Amino acid sequence: MNEYTVPLALQDFMPVMLSSAGLFFLAEMIARTNRATGRVALLGTWLIMLGGGLKAAWKLNMAISGNDIAWMSNALFVLLAPGFTLMACALWAAQAQMRGRPLGFNMPAMALGISGVFLAVAAVLGIAAPAGSAWKFVLLGVTTAANFALSALCIVQAFRMGKREVAILFIINVVAIIILQGLARIPEQTIPLQWTEQIINTLSSAAFAYAAWKLSRETQARLVAGRLQFA
After folding, report:
1. DSSP state, 34?
2. Membrane-spanning residues where (predicted)?
3. Within 10 A of 116 (CB to CB), how many other CB atoms are there?
4. How many CB atoms lie within 10 A of CB 71?
5. DSSP per residue over 168-180, as a string?
6. What does the alpha-carbon distance between residue 127 and residue 124 come to, in Å, rounded to a whole number?
7. Angle at Cα 118 formed by Cα 113 and Cα 120, nearest 5°?
8. What span, in angstroms and rounded, lies between the C-alpha atoms of 170 and 126?
């Protein structure tokens, strides 16, 4: 079992807050194109923030008491998978609206359906093998794919709007996620290694938050002015 210190656990709340801020900026932008789609994005944002917050709270509890409250740790997988799926689908629908070619199907229903299917598969795997980790890998795979899809949509939108510096910040965040996934596979998670991971995570979350804020503000300004060009 990994060891945690109180300062390490407290610092883990910082990337959660930064990434959540970025997601709220994106949700605000999405809501300007369609209120219903904006509500889907907001739900996804709250799920992601709750999942990350519970994981950070679990780590703090471990550092203080050594008590492993499993559901708090597992909530990260259960909440992030549907959260990122909802966010990615909402941004996809919003960009279609911006281009003047709205999707011809019920996007919220599709996003909820996709999330429900994978949660059901994970539940079956968890019941079939309670001690196994297959259900976590399923949800982790969904989270990773949806997160990358969300980032890709942001990068494409930024480039097409001529905001290269914003796109680069989103790319930096994606690269950091890949690096963190590699570091997380190291068996011996020492305190210095965990500090390295959390610092990288904080910096990449800050880059994401700032990029999301810039993209949201620029998009909303162009929507108000009626000069949004996003072909």
Report:
1. -
2. 13-31, 40-58, 70-93, 105-131, 137-159, 166-184
3. 12
4. 9
5. HHHHHHHHHHHHH
6. 5
7. 90
8. 34
CA distances from 191 to 5, 12, 196, 202 (A): 8, 13, 9, 16
Residue ranges of domains in the chain, CATH in brackets: 6-223 (1.20.1070)
Tokens of 51: 């999942």
Q: Give yes or no for a contact between 67 and 61, defined as CB atoms under 8 angstroms apart.
A: yes
Q: Which of 72, 50, 33 is nearest to 219 (CA)?
A: 33
- What is the mean pLDDT, run by run of 10 residues, along the chain of 231 residues? 85 96 96 89 96 95 91 92 94 88 77 88 87 88 94 95 95 95 89 94 96 94 71 51
Count Cα atoms within 13 angstroms, Cβ side, for 163: 25
Question: In which residue are the tokens 């998978």 written?
Answer: 81
Helix (H, G, I), strand (E, B) or coil at 144: helix
Q: Is the CB of residue 68 less than 8 Å from the CB of residue 62?
A: yes
